[in-house]
Design a protein that fits this description.
Elements lengths: L5 E6 L6 H14 L4 E5 L5 H11 L7 H25 L3 E5 L2 H11 L4 H10 L1 E2 L2 E2 L4 E6 L2 H9 L15 H17 L4 E5 L4 H16 L9
Parallel strand pairs: 1-3, 1-6, 2-3, 6-7
Antiparallel strand pairs: 4-5
This protein binds thymidine-5'-phosphate.
């Protein structure tokens, strides 16, 4: 059964500014009086937050496949216990990362390829359907810009196990995303996230207006 809500996912390489933009999205949706849930992966529910800590702990070296399975396990718990109920109640779900993160980081970054898609199709199947987002909003930055932001002294963001990967890993992740955009045409909107926060949000807002409020150029800023 198709749900009545809308499932919007923010995607992008590390340092693409998702956290900042999600705060702006929340503020905008509140202002519009929208009924929404804002959540994140890996995490969003207690079990998945625990899995997140295991995956991202800088002391926990693990194989690429183990990493992929853990992300998929966290994804399924979060999907079944938070995302699906909200969508069935007709809510908007805004989620920081989802399947495309696994396809780019584990599929391309770790080089696991097709296995990642197979595992994830299993993880997002429920009630006879696969839960794919209505839209992936992809914030695009080069590894130079993204990693530069993460390692900048002013930031209070914690450094996790994946941030510590070589620049080459992050380059493969971004190339992965760019290929996924071609492969999954229509499921992505690409936004240049090297712009100022305000310009990035203006682009996101026009996607939200079109998708959620069936508007094009009205000014609610
Ligand atoms: P975050 O910093 O955006 O919260 O994400 C945590 C890290 O996990 C980030 O480096 C991206 C990575 N990640 C994957 O590698 N695969 C996934 O499926 C997800 C959801 C995140």
């Amino acid at each position: 059964m198709k749900y009545s809500g809308k499932f919007i996912v923010l995607e992008g390489p590390d340092g693409s500014g998702k956290t900042t933009q999600i705060a702006k999205i929340e503020q905008y949706l509140r202002q519009r009086g929208a009924d929404f849930v804002s959540t994140r992966e890996p995490g969003g529910v207690a079990v998945a937050e625990k899995i997140r800590r295991v995956i991202l702990d800088v002391d926990n070296a693990m194989s690429g496949l183990t990493e992929c399975l853990l992300y998929a396990a966290a994804r399924r718990e979060h999907l079944l216990n938070k995302v699906v109920p909200a969508l069935e109640q007709g809510k908007i779900v805004v989620c920081d990362r989802y399947v495309m993160s696994s396809l780019s980081y584990q599929g391309y970054g770790r080089g696991l390829g097709q296995d990642v898609l197979d595992i994830n199709k299993r993880a997002i199947s429920w009630n006879g359907m696969e839960y794919w987002p209505d839209m992936n909003i992809y914030l695009d930055v080069t590894p130079e810009v993204g990693l530069g932001r993460i390692h900048a002294k002013q930031t209070d963001r914690e450094i996790n196990r994946l941030d510590l990967e070589e620049e080459d890993f992050h380059r493969k992740v971004r190339e992965g995303y760019l290929r996924l955009i071609e492969e999954y045409e229509g499921q992505f909107t690409r936004i240049d996230a090297s712009q100022s926060e305000e310009l990035v949000f203006a682009d996101i807002k026009s996607v939200l207006d079109r998708l959620l409020f069936a508007e094009s150029e009205q000014d609610f800023s």
